[in-house]
Amino acid sequence: MIDQFNMRDHFVSLCNLVNQTRLDGVLVQSGELIANMTGGRIALIYLLDATGRNLVLSGGYAQGFSTWAPGSRIHPLQGGGRSPVCPLTQVAFTGKNLCLDNGTAGYDMSPVISALDGVNCPSHVAVLPLARANADFLGVAVVLSDGAIAPWLDRSVARQILRAVAAAIETRQVVAGQENEKAMLAKSLARAEGDRMSLRQRETGRLSKRLIGRSRPMQALREKVAHLADKTGPVMILGEDGVGKEKVARAMHEHSVHSASAFVYANCASLPIDVFAPELFGHKRGAIKGVASARQGLLRKAGNGVVYLDGIDRLCGPGQEMLLRLLETRQYRPLGSDRDLPLAARIIVSARSDLSARAQEGTFLPGLYYRLREMAITVPSLDECREDIGDIVQAVLNGIEREEKRHLKLHPAAFAFLSQRPFPGDRRELEGLTRLAASNAKDGTMLTAEHFQAVDAQSEPENVSTPGILPLPEALAMFEQDLITRALAQTDGNRTTAAEMLGVPKRTLADKCKKYGL
What we know:
Blueprint: H1 2-9, H2 11-19, H3 23-38, E1 42-48, E2 54-62, E3 74-76, H4 87-94, E4 98-100, H5 110-116, E5 124-131, E6 137-145, H6 150-153, H7 156-207, H8 216-228, E7 235-238, H9 245-254, E8 263-267, H10 273-281, E9 282-283, E10 295-296, H11 298-302, E11 306-310, H12 317-329, E12 331-332, E13 341-342, E14 346-351, H13 355-361, H14 366-372, E15 376-378, H15 389-404, E16 409-410, H16 412-420, H17 426-439, E17 446-447, H18 449-459, H19 472-490, H20 495-502, H21 506-516
Parallel strand pairs: 7-14, 7-15, 8-11, 11-14, 16-17
Antiparallel strand pairs: 1-2, 1-6, 2-3, 4-5, 5-6, 9-10, 12-13
Helix pairs in contact: 2-3, 3-7, 7-8, 15-17, 16-18, 17-18, 17-19, 19-20, 20-21
């Protein structure tokens, strides 16, 4: 009858215990429940810490003190052999109840008394072990009462309530641990995101040295390049002639994890179908009539690097179909071979901005366009970011200073002139015009509008009656000068790379540059 009465009496307290969502609330409710169950006046709960070597005073309840809470204290668990014996340590090691109804002689009660912090210590003490669901030691509950405690501990209801208390504490500890891990993970993710953004900013800062311009379209372009640099799929770079599509492709490769691998260039306009396949895939010895030796294709030559197909819109129809199959299967077969090879290189292509319309008209393979547009970048024209003209000119002048040791500056009036001048050849034309304007300038000169106007005047035909007709040597020289100027513009003035692109020795290119004042 007593058990039934107490269980009914403590039912509300048990419900409150189960409904607690915080560990500190569980500890307070547990202290009150244990004190009421044993007829005690004070209950303290010590929990084993993460090291397993200390008991930490984690909560408590004192009858008649609604706002009382014990201060947090750490009690090291000491081994046997000490005199007097600490009751907390004894229960922790034995796992059995310790009831001191007949006095505390022989026991060191200082850990309990100090925890009361001025509250009068009752004469009867009981230390009760708390166990986890797997029977591992969880902690102890210390009950202090003005009357005997032992009779209360012999009842089944006491054991049930102690198990309920231990289960509630263990559950809240697990939840608190999970919430703590979740919070730490959130902080870690936030730091990782911050590091990623910082890295992206550093990458876009490095890209600004190659993809020049402070305008918003150029900033967006650099962010897109940094975003796509370490991806593996094919990329399509769209833009009109002269905007610098190859620079974008090279910048993307240089900022990827495979930047140490090769960057292989191919001009699709010069690759008819009978040349496209052996050039791209390679061929075995004897596979092509009249060609005795084998050839390593561009895909094999690039390795894990990049194969850049310039002017994909000028590629013949069968070549487009071959490229589409290569992208879909990621395998290719050299001519004359009987086995496929895996595609290791990344494919980057460039095309003019009207490729979408051409795909809709059917003059460009729609399937290839849809496959390539999954990762597409549009390079803004100079008309979209004319505020970048000064930066582009200054970059060219900086290149001249590094290569030729000539220090040149741009006059503000020249910038105003260039800002109003049309550039049908886009950035390439602006860079070439700057090099030509600087070709006859002496060291320390400030380039004015007259320097650029003089270049424009020289480009006009002298014989108006026969426009477009020039002596062959002069026409060839103009074509050669323009070709070299374009190559230097595309390579940021790097003569070694420009010589490789033009297929001539570096010394030959140096002589040509000297001849034309480039």
